[in-house]
Amino acid sequence: MTRILVLDGHPAEGAFCGALAREYAERAREQGHEVRLRHLAELAFDPDFGVSSFKDAKPLEPDLQAIWDDLTWCQHFVVAHPLWWGGLPAKLKGLFDRILLPGTAFQYVRGKPLPEKLLKGRTSQVLVTSDTPGWYFRWIYGAGVRKQTEKQILDFCGLKPKGYHMFSPIRGSDDASRAKMIGRAADLGRSVA
Fold it and tell me: Which intervals of the chain form a coiled coil (predicted)?
């Protein structure tokens, strides 16, 4: 059994990301995993880090503290989010800015170019909804947000990437294509090791 945190990283309620996150969570539960599902839209916090140094970081609001507690509890972290302007929604990026701090998520070590990964031993997956076709995202745009999310956010803190999954295009999709996407999310939830 794996402890899994699934974060619906869409800042609005009722988005397709939420359907993917719920499906992933439900299928993982059916496999006997312990799953916590959180929705970014329900969290109240200031997403602006707002200071010039980590030592001046403001205290975490209760919702952020709960997410941090879930992140340290989990063995596998899944985030489902929309691709907006080639990146993460501002509120989701703000969540990462606020909770992934030195001394808790990573630690700089004198004389070493890269920090110690304090969340090591955990894995991660990313589910991304987009109007941009997957091939265009990879070959024309260069998949910049994938590199940022996997390398500079998740793996930087020790959440080893285990998959980056595009669900696209959303705009213009019909019920059959959305059902197929939900099926893919279900398969991913069932296949957590």
Answer: none
Is the alpha carbon torsion for 154, 92, 85, 49 positive or negative? negative
DSSP for residue 160: E
User: Tokens at residue 128, please?
Assistant: 């991304």
Contacts of 41 (CB under 8 A, 6+ apart): 8, 10, 11, 12, 13, 18
Q: What is the pLDDT along the chain (193 residues), one digit of tens a residue?
A: 999 999 999 999 999 999 999 999 999 999 999 999 999 999 999 999 987 788 888 999 999 999 999 999 999 999 999 999 999 999 999 999 999 999 999 999 999 999 999 999 999 999 999 999 989 999 999 999 999 999 999 999 999 999 999 999 999 999 999 999 999 999 999 999 7
Contact assessment for residue 56 and residue 102, using Cβ atoms and an 8 Å cutoff = no
Question: Do the Cβ atoms of 193 and 123 come closer than 8 Å?
Answer: no
Domains of the chain as residue ranges with CATH: 3-190 (3.40.50.360)
For the beta carbon of residue 61, count every other beta carbon within 10 angstroms: 14
Contact 122, 84 (CB under 8 A): no
Q: Model's pTM, two decimal places?
A: 0.96
| Nearest-angstrom CA–CA distance, 15 and 69 | 25
